[in-house]
Amino acid sequence: MMKVFEKIRDGILDVVFPARCVGCGEEGYYICRRCEGFMGESALICPLCQQSSLTGERHENCGSLYGLEGLASMWEYEGVVKGLLHTIKYNGVVHAAAEMVWRAYIDMADDIMRFSAFLSYLFSKNTCITYVPMFKKKERKRGFNQAAVFAREIGKIAGKDVVSLLEKIGDTKPQVDLTKEERLQNVRGTFRFNAQYSKPNSEKIPNILIPKNLVLVDDVWTTGATIKECCKVLKKAGVQNVWGFTVARTP
């Protein structure tokens, strides 16, 4: 019923407030074809040392028991990309996320050599999708979790289940104004694994097993503190492999 309501709401919004380009205001799309050329592609990096990686995979010499296997970030977090993410996150235009994810997928398919490792992992048989959770009080106030919205859109494209494997158990300061060290401290111990998934024959969700491979979705990668903390929790719970995906990365 909620999904039906969301579709009706989005349809009304499209009529009353038609999509306008965040770059120039042209009606029709949230990023028009002209402004699309200003979406700067993000260089792929090793998620551990954050140095260049041709395919976004972790460097062999950057071993970590609880680290990400790779990171795929599509665009640099600036200009029209930053504008559209703010439109989604702070103006509540959540249906714009579908346009953004489809653009990301098309761009990745066009640049298959760079994104081959991530796409192969995403479409492999044993891969599921999860996302960085919000503190419940904040999510209720905003009305949605943008990371979950992006995760569901990716799931539609890849034909993958999206599972809520993580919970945020503590409120934290906004990461934007913190130093790298403060960001790490700010998120430490604030996430936990959703216990209902750790029992294969639980009454709540029968026969749900901990996934072997996961794509962990968030909107923006800055220092990676949040995703890395989530990855650590997932791997301690039994997940074997985790790739990170963010729509954008701070240059």
From TrEMBL:
CDD domains found in the cross-reference section: PRTases_typeI (cd06223)
InterPro entries (UniProt xref): ComF/GntX_DNA_util-trans, PRTase-like, PRTase_dom
Domain of life of the source: Bacteria
Family: Belongs to the ComF/GntX family.
Protein name: Phosphoribosyltransferase domain-containing protein
Species of the source: Candidatus Buchananbacteria bacterium RIFCSPLOWO2_01_FULL_46_12
